[in-house]
Amino acid sequence: MRSSFPLSVSVGLVALLSLSACGFSGEAGKSRQAADLDQRIVVDNFRAPVADWALESDTAYILSLSGCLETLTRYDETQGKIVPSLATEWKQVSPLEWDFTLREGVKFQDGAALDAKAVVNSLQHVLDAEVPARAFSPKVVKAVKALDDHTVRVTTPTKSPLVPYRLASVNTGILAPAAFKGKSVDPFRHCTGPFTPVSEKPKQSLTLDRNANYWGGQVKLAGAEIRFITDGATRTAQVQTGEADVSLSIPVSGLAALESDSKVKVLKADSPRTATLYMNNGKAPFNNVDFRKAVRSALDLDALAASVYEGAAIPATGPFAPSEPWAIKGAKAPKQDLDAAKKLLASAGYTANRPLEIIAIVERAEFADVATVIQENLKTVGVPVKVTTKEYAAVEPDLLSGNYDMVLSQRNRLIDIADPIGFLTADYTCDGTYNLSHFCNADYDKKISEAATTADAEKRYRLYAEAGQILQDQAVNVWLVNEQAIDAVRTDLQAHIQDPLARYVLRAETAKSGS
After folding, report:
1. How far apart are the C-alpha atoms of 498 and 438, rounded to whole Å?
2. Percent of the chain having pLDDT more than 70?
3. Helix count and strand count (H, E) for the chain
4. Helix crossing, 457-473 with 442-452: angle to 10°?
5. What whole-number distance in Å separates Cα of residue 326 and Cα of residue 467?
6. Does residue 6 surpass a pLDDT of 50?
7. Residue 406 neighbours by CB distance under 10 Å
8. Residue 315 has pLDDT above 80, yes or no
């Protein structure tokens, strides 16, 4: 690769993202059956598109896991590094400029050629969005332009060693020029991937057919249906009955039944994902750090992990998992201390003049039970709480505007790019676009600004740890448990690779044996 930036992540991150099974091809002890090229499969996904296929939104993840949307670079979860995709190579030509060489001979599913003009057009739509993608916004990318038919230059406002990571974000997926009609986006037959969307039932499902002209080689499935099923118990039941071939994000409550079923394989992988009790730092009583610390001291994380999560998760030590290379050294999970909680409440001047609300996101089936445990813990120290369950799409506007008390949710720290800079910037800086906590701290912002321009990985990771310590010291949220990515697949599915970052599910090599 011509002067390609290697961007290999540390051993710690590779271990974090290591897969429990790189591929799967049928029941143990049985001979592999030939793939049936006429087979179609069903994938149960845990969320539906909420922004009409806008690439700058989380909808891009659905287009990516569906095998439609592809990016210039790609994070390979088995190698733990950035690898070529629609771009074959890249190099930094100046402190602020990166050139990406496009793969030749690639066509969009509508027959148009992939060239630099089309790539720039697609990326510019993301930059121009009213709410740009966290990984690819005017804050981190100044301009994109075509140098010639096969070269795209990305210019940054400041030195940025992570540009190839940003071009692996699903939000930078490339669609054909015909996909963009005014402010709307139409991905149907306008992707480059192994599968092309052909129809949808809004908020219910997306149907895809094989892309017979895929640049990456033969596509083994005739097509697939992605179903949007927010209820975890339903996803569990459908993979067990055979209604679904893949079910993503299986709740802990469904594991026993699936693990005892000889026709289902349960896949588990360490994931940079932490179940979190978000607290609205911009609203009383949560705008008082002693009150937030009191909430943290009142919770019994050990009991929570053992009961609701049935031992499939471990108490969190803070905003990072201990295995991550940027974890806070020596950090330990907080222990319940009711006396300390009561003293902190007194110091905060708290009086229980109204019940505080915890919103439990229904897409995570266990959150209703988690909320009940937290409700009981806080009641013990004199903090009344009511629990409400809602779908994420319904509650997101209130979360972003600060119209809430507490919400149970989770964030994948590597969801924007395969480095936590996206998560730490979007979620906790003063101008963060996903700052649900409504937290603002000048010292924290300074650490993140320095990290964003630091090429040396070890130094950057130290800055992340220092920023994480500020979040912990300020008790911005209560980080509850570190979870695993748990998916389930039917045993006749072949060449399936679990992606703990939930970006890729349907691939060209995905296959199903004949009956």
Report:
1. 34
2. 93
3. 14, 21
4. 160
5. 10
6. no
7. 22
8. yes
User: Residue 124: which residues within 8 A CB-CB, separation 6 or more?
Assistant: 144
User: What integer is the mean pLDDT of 294-302?
Assistant: 98
DSSP for 185-212, written as a single string? E--TT---SSEEEEEEETTTEEEEEE-T
Statement: residue 5 has pLDDT above 80: no
Token duo for residue 342: 């009561």
Nearest-CA neighbor of 501 among 273, 326, 323? 273
304-326 average pLDDT score: 90
| Residue 412 tokens, joined | 């994948």
CB 153 within 8 A of CB 123: no
- C-alpha 399/C-alpha 404 separation (Å) is 6
The answer to whether 71 and 191 have CB atoms below 8 angstroms apart is: no
Which among 235, 226, 238 has a CA at the least distance from the CA of 195?
A: 226
DSSP string of 227-280, one letter each residue:
EE---HHHHHHHHHHTS-SEE-S--GGGHHHHHT-TTEEEEEEEEEEEEEEEE-
What's at 374, amino acid-wise?
A: I
| Nearest Cα residue to 115 out of 126, 103, 123, 130 | 103
Per-residue confidence (pLDDT) for residue 96, from 0 to 100: 96
315 CB-near residues (< 8 Å, 6+ apart):
301, 302, 304, 305, 333, 480, 481, 482
* Mean pLDDT value across residues 415-419: 82
Contact call for residues 296 and 336 (beta carbons, < 8 A): no
Nearest-angstrom CA–CA distance, 467 and 354: 33
Q: CA 75 to CA 500: how far, in whole Å?
A: 12
pLDDT band per the 50, 70, 90 thresholds, residue 252: confident
Amino acid at residue number 348: A
Q: Which residue bears the tokens 């008390």?
A: 405
Q: Which of 473, 477, 374 is nearest to 423 (CA)?
A: 477
> Taking 80 as the threshold, does the pLDDT of residue 251 lie above it?
yes
pLDDT at res. 32: 58
Type of residue at 38? D
The SS3 assignment for 370 reads helix
Task: Compute the distance between CA of residue 288 and CA of residue 59 in angstroms, rounded to an integer.
Answer: 35
Neighbours of 413 (CB within 10 A): 25
